[in-house]
Amino acid sequence: MVDPSLVGKQIGETTFPIDRSKLAELARAFGDTDPVWHDPPAAQAAGFDAVPAPPTVTVLAAHWREGGVPGMVAAIGADLSRVLHGESEWEYFVPVRMGDTLTSRDIVADVTQRQGKRGGTMTMIKIQNEFINQRGELAVRRTDILIEREI
Questions:
Q1: Of residues 133, 113, 129, the one with CA closest to residue 10
Q2: Which stretches in the chain have pLDDT values below 50?
Q3: How many whole angstroms separate alpha carbon 46 and alpha carbon 75?
């Protein structure tokens, strides 16, 4: 079980670039065929700083984080084989654009328990990720809920 004394503790910090190739991969996953995503001259013509990132671009942080998602689960002391992703919520403060660099600070915001509908206790872990851009501005706040199921 995740220790509730983790509330307020920073469990990770990751810095990563918002580069053209990753945005092209996200656009391809969404089925977006706009040349600004897939054609470097089109992106350059638009001005890199004018190309907005898709709203879910912050999920890329997991690819840069030491140990990836399993590393985050280990940082909270949970058993990866019993962890589910419950939900994500995003708040946007300033646009994230191609060429930005974001630093994510991951903090345990809450740990609670409740009974599952099929029996057993579920531990709900709220992780708040604040993404600060290279100008020191809070760009995005993403809140994830992880669920650790009882054995």
A1: 129
A2: none
A3: 41
pTM: 0.83
At the top level of CATH, the class of 4-19+57-149 is: alpha beta
Give 91-124 pLDDT, tens digit per residue.
Answer: 999 999 888 999 999 999 999 998 877 778 899 9
DSSP classification of residue 53: P
Q: Cβ–Cβ contacts within 10 Å for residue 65, how many?
A: 19
Q: Report the alpha-carbon distance of residue 48 to residue 28 in Å, rounded.
A: 18
The domain ranges of the chain are: 4-19+57-149
Q: How far apart are CA 79 and CA 147, in angstroms?
A: 10
Element (H, E) at 103: strand 101-115
Closest by Cα among 71, 69, 75 to 11 = 75
Q: What angle do CA 96, 98, 100 make, to 5 degrees?
A: 60
